[in-house]
Amino acid sequence: MLRLVVDFAQIELALSPFCRRLIDLGKHYKILKAFRALLVLNTDEFQNNSAVGDVVPYDVVLHHLFSRAPIEMQSPHQVELKLILLIFDFDVLFLGNELVN
C-alpha cells in the first residue's frame, strides 16, 4: 500500500509543472487524492469514511478491499474464471466436447 501512496505523490509532483492548481483537474484528481487517503486506513475505517461512494466510486473501493482480503476470499473475477474452467473441464471429460480451431 505504501508503494501506491508514494506513486500517487509522484503523479501529483509530475503534474504540478503543467497545472498550477491541481484541484482544477477536476473529478479524476479528486478521486486520486481521496483514494490515496483511503490507502492508509485500516479496513474498519472505510465504513465511516465520507469519500467512499461520494468521491471514490464503490467499485474502486470494493476492488481495493478484495486486494486486502485473505487469500481464501477470492475476488469475483477469480471465482467466475474457476467456474468457467470447471464447466469447460466437465464438457471435455464427460461429454467429449472440445474446442475446434
Explain this structure:
The chain is mostly helical. The protein has a domain at 2-71. Helices cover 61% and strands 0% of the residues. The protein contains five helices and no strands. The chain has helices at 2-15, 27-39, 51-54, 58-68, 76-95. The chain is elongated and about 55 Å long.
Task: Write a brief caption for the model.
This protein is mostly helical and 101 residues long. The chain has helices spanning 2-15, 27-39, 51-54, 58-68, 76-95.
Distance between the ends: 43 Å
Strand content: under 5%
Structural class: mainly alpha
The run of helices and strands is HHHHH
Number of helices: 5
| Mean pLDDT reading | 77
Oligomer kind: single chain
Q: Whole-number radius of gyration?
A: 20 Å
What's the shape?
elongated
Number of strands: 0
Characterize the main sheet.
none
Weakly predicted, low-confidence segments: none
**Helical amount among residues, as a percent range?**
55-70%
List keywords for this structure.
single chain
Indicate the topology.
Elements: H1 2-15, H2 27-39, H3 51-54, H4 58-68, H5 76-95
Helix pairs in contact: 1-2
